[in-house]
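On clarity, I found the account of how folds are encoded harder to follow than it need be. Since the whole study asks how a given chain folds, the encoding of that fold should be made plain. For the editor and my fellow referees, an illustration may be useful. An entry of this sort, consisting of the sequence and the corresponding backbone structure tokens, reads as follows:

:::
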Amino acid sequence: MTTLSPLASAWTRSKPPLLRFLGNCLNEFSAETAGHVADYIPELSKADPAHFGISLATLDGHVYEVGDSRVPFTIQSMSKPFVFALALDLLGAGRVESAIGVEPSGDPFNSIRLNSDNHPFNPMVNAGAIACTGLIYDSKGADAFEQIRLALSRFAGRDLAVDEAVYSSESQTGDRNRAIGYLLKTNAVISDNVAGVLDVYFRQCAVLVTARDIAVMAATLANRGVNPVTGEQVLTPYAISRTLSVMTSSGMYDYAGEWIYRIGIPAKSGVGGGILAALPARLGLGSYSPKLDKHGNSVRGIKVCEALSSHYDLHMLNRSDDARNAVIADYDIGKSPSRRVRRPQEREILAAHEQEVRVIELVGTLSLSAVDYVSRRLAGQLRPQIVIFDLHRVTSTTRAGARLVAEAFEELAALNVTVVISGVRRASKEWDSLREWTAELKNVRDFYLLDTAIEWAEDQIVYRYGGSIDFHETTELAEQPLLSGMSEEELTDLASICAIRTFPSGAKIITTGAPADSLFFLRSGAVHVTLPDGVRLATLTAGMAFGEMALLEPTRSADVFADVSATAFEVPLKDFERFRKQHPRASERIMRNLAQLLADRLIVANAKVDILTST
């Protein structure tokens, strides 16, 4: 058995910083004994006051847990935001908003009071939550509770059950909620069947969850309705954003103002001892400790939220995203051309018009401020003919950002500028978001690979300035850069040991790992060179060599495929070595040319690195 060194042992025992922080919170706040377990529902009074669990879910689906994070307890009022979001999606915002307000009440959660329109103040107090459940009951009837339970389960990422004992206890002692129900019926907010609505409401409050569950549910809210663990889009971003808005203003009842002022994270508590907090685009937090303060909020849970917000400066209104960080690189094709090896005539045209193609590589979130900054940055220089926006490092696109992108593209179209998008797969959500606003634009093209986009743009510049790209053109050995400087006699001798090979489009000419026993001089057509993982290294056209690394290494290090029908001069390496011995001057010239070609490739690669590190 291998004995680990002290450092190696420490490494295996080490914990991520967030997990250590949650562990510290657990240890520190476990000593807090203030508060009382809820007893107005008799079954809740049986909770163990020592229980304390914390969980935090990230938007990439990782879940941290400490303490009693798997101890089940009833969701109670934490069900309210999820049922409100469900109602918005099931019934439409107009129907829900006509019955339930969105203003803070300033009253306790179970206040028997309506607003000046005789409607509940908001869906986070009991009156609003019962009304919300009533709207779903009116629509779904006997299936209403199952609709709610399934929605809560999708938020949690697992099937949730009901604590029948708590449900029964709540039903037997829920007279205050019955009073609220009949007040809502009197004011035509819910239908005649108050008992049926309240039965669904009591059941939804008795659904069993854990601190881990509510962390994942909160993270789903923070992730625009996408469960980060399962990847499922549970509800629409519209419903989620409106729900978070009401949680921000009213989620903590008559403590809501103090909460958002000091902690600044949308949250919801339940008298079962749970608190969930959803920081948009960041994380979801869930805690469980059954002792409550005078507002009905978990004493330890509030301390956890306060500590997390304070320690990591997470107040939602204290954001420092800088739009200027959205641009990771901004250059023209003179500074970073495509990997296609061009003929002299093409290189001359591109060198004379390199500023006609602008490439802007973006990173992070494509937000309104980021797109605005990019559009102003683009306008600050000479108008190009083609602009390439590479989005492969963009992690998300807001609707505002996508809409501003479309408006910017419209302006570019009016100025006869072609837009090329790269780095976005057509099957992705990012593509759908962009195409929602840009589908009707005629000046937009797309390629998944940035290099393909740059190559296409270069071709357009060559065509527009009188050049031609003829894959069927045939070249001879004398036109090969690798053979530059060789005499006519040397070229004739070399031609005598060449065989002309023909490759159909798509043919694999060279395979990684195969013996490097020949080299090729492309006579017509085009080929591309790729690494085994699919990364394209170069596109070669007539007059270029490939497989030339056989002069330096015994096995092939890349694959070569024919892009179109191609012909090439193939020279067996053993015959080429004899030729070099017979013509030492030519041998020296070939190796010098090879060194120059490799140096040119390194210069291009370094230029790309410089661009990415200097922006």
